[in-house]
Amino acid sequence: MAMALLLIPLVVLYASVRDPSRQTSFDRTVLRPLGWVQSMATSSARVISDFLGDYVLLFEVREENDRLASRVARLDMERHVLLEQGVENRRLRSLLQLRERIGGELIAAEVIARDISPPFFRVTRVELDRGSRDRVRSGMPVLSGSGLVGLVLNAGAQTADVQLIVDRRAAVDVIIQRTGARGMLRGTGEEERYLARIQFLGREDALRVGDLVHTSGLGQRFPPSILVGRVTRIVREDFGLYQEVEVTPAVDFSRLDEVLILTDGALAEEPAVVAPRPAR
Questions:
Q1: 205 or 51: which leads in pLDDT
Q2: pLDDT score of 243 more than 70
Q3: Does residue 112 contact residue 127 with C-beta atoms inside 8 Å?
Q4: Do the Cβ atoms of 273 and 183 come closer than 8 Å?
């Protein structure tokens, strides 16, 4: 048996190295199974090689995808940071411009807390990181780069509560920029939106939706020419002396972060109410 196992490779080797033109039928019979084995081995080797190549390529592609995904995430985070810095820079720039325009003594403050009214999560009051030790007291106007915020309601040693202009108890003497018409702006205190109304505007005052509303400066409570909001609705009845005017504030109170407190020229008394004017 052992001798047969040794002779088989020798016979196969002899038949394979022999000149094909001199091969006998025995040689071809011996080489035919060898050809099948070689063909199967070649095919198997090709399949295994292709599989290993695809696996290596797939592994490298997966690693490259992971690297690219990590880079995209990092770039997206950097872009988000730059956008936030851009928004903050614009806010601070608008506050600086407001300080230069108004003059007087202004203290910069940050919003550190908000009172939220459910179910619409509307901000009803904000708390600042400045207080009486910073010479902040009740009745001082609070401004932002977008417009009028409100006034200091209570001042503690280190913090101050701010009454927003949309509060039901807030009142601001205002003027319509385009027409010069004056009235008293009062907050509506609505739960689902920030809104105020102007009282004592005569029916003859030709207001338009989109008119800008500014502080008049009367009553010495708020400095003049501070943007308050924009007229968004006008109702003129066929009777009565006045028209109903709704104003949407210029300030987005839900995103309020930095403000300025006007510390000079602020009075603690309630602002004077504009006297009603009879219709012409």
A1: 205
A2: yes
A3: yes
A4: no
Q: Which two tokens stand for residue 38?
A: 């070689």
Q: What is the pLDDT of residue 99?
A: 66
Distance in angstroms (rounded) separating the CA atoms of residues 173 and 209 = 19
State whether the Cα torsion 161-165-169-171 is positive or negative.
positive
Task: Examine the domain organization and report whether 130 and 246 are in the same domain.
Answer: yes
Among 102, 121, 141, identify where a domain stops.
Answer: 102
Q: Which structural domain, as residue segments, surrounds residue 141?
A: 106-262
Say if residue 158 is exposed, middle or buried (CB neighbours under 10 Å; 0-12, 13-18, 19+). Answer: middle
Q: Evaluate whether 196 touches 188 at the Cβ level (below 8 Å).
A: yes
What is the model's pTM? 0.62
- CA-wise closest residue to 215 among 171, 278, 248: 171
Distance of CA 180 to the CA centre of its chain: 36
Torsion of CA 91, 93, 99, 102, to 10 degrees: -90
Lowest average pLDDT, out of 13-27, 85-99, 258-272, goes to 13-27
213 vs 73: CA distance, rounded Å: 44
Strands (E) located in the chain: 106-117, 122-128, 141-143, 148-155, 160-164, 171-176, 182-187, 196-199, 212-215, 227-235, 244-249, 258-262
The reply to whether 249 falls in a domain is: yes
The H or E element containing residue 90 is helix 25-102
Structure tokens at 9: 């490779």
Distance in angstroms between the alpha carbons of the first and the last residue of the chain: 132
Instruction: Answer whether 120's CB lies under 8 Å from 191's CB.
Output: yes
Does the pLDDT at position 254 exceed 50? yes
Q: How many domains does the chain have?
A: 2
Residue 46 domain-assigned (yes or no):
yes
